[in-house]
Amino acid sequence: MNLFKACLTLATAVSLIAAATSASAQSLRNIVLVHGAWVDASGWKPVAEILIRDGFNVTMVQEPETSFQEDVSAAKRVLDLQDGPTLLVGHSYGGSIITEAGVHPKVVGLVYVAAHAPDVGEDEAALGRKTPSVLAKTEGAIMKTPDGFTYLNPALFPKLFAPDLPRERAEFSARSQVLAAASVFSTPLAAAAWRTKPSWGIVAGNDQIINPELERWYYTRAKSQMTEIKGASHSVFESHPKEVAQVIAEAARKAPRQ
């Protein structure tokens, strides 16, 4: 009887350990998505739908694009609401936001989607000038309002930002742009979360907004696990949602738990 009880106790312990291990493997369910400049969080819809279907708790940040610090604060505000370890994902200018906001204690990993990833004291505008994109070389592509807010020339938006999206969809995005304060691109970062937290990076192979070479350089420097989606435009999160969601889900499985 004593032997039987001992075996039963051992079996129960093994079962509990296995259950705890399984729960730990599934514990990172929170994903926060941060959009880039000139667009809003609705562009994440195709990716979010896949992740939600797969059981993730997905929240999108609607940053105002009025100043870099206000955008970082908007991301941190959403992170405060998460109930546990969180994977933080940023597209384009959103990469700068998650780089600084990612020092938040709930963030356990970062995913860069055709994104900037500056270091402390750097800003994406200066880095972009060192590795210019097609956008930077296109005269009249970036427009500016009298009070210093920028937007992409609507006539050029489909060609530069979203050439692999259906024309009507790209034109709608061109008409619904969120104007971004010019200062958001030139504000030096005060923190770089990729220095202390694991990261993943997606290169959009046909990106006209950020030079793919710059994306590769960022991710190599950050020691990110890199994935390249060949032929994808800057709107890779909309044009290739399955591939983007797959990278995010894999990062969620591999990111450390707190």
How do the strands and helices of this protein lay out in sequence?
Elements: H1 2-25, E1 30-34, H2 45-53, E2 57-61, H3 68-80, E3 86-91, H4 94-101, E4 107-113, H5 124-130, H6 134-137, E5 142-144, E6 149-152, H7 157-160, H8 167-175, E7 180-181, E8 199-204, H9 212-221, E9 225-229, H10 236-239, H11 241-254
Parallel strand pairs: 1-2, 1-3, 3-4, 4-8, 8-9
Antiparallel strand pairs: 5-6, 6-7
Helix pairs in contact: 2-11, 3-4
Q: What is the 3D form? A: globular
The CATH architecture category equals 3-Layer(aba) Sandwich
CATH class: Alpha Beta
- Contiguous low-pLDDT stretches (5 residues minimum) are 3-25
In the sheet with the most strands, the strands line up as 2-1-3-4-8-9
Relevant CATH superfamily: Alpha/Beta hydrolase fold, catalytic domain
Order of helices and strands: HEHEHEHEHHEEHHEEHEHH
Q: Using only CA atoms, what is the Rg? A: 20 Å
**Number of distinct helices:** 11
Task: Tell me the span between the first and last alpha carbons.
Answer: 41 Å
Number of strands: 9
The helix/strand class is alpha/beta
Mean pLDDT: 92
Any idea how many domains? 1
Largest sheet: 6 strands, parallel
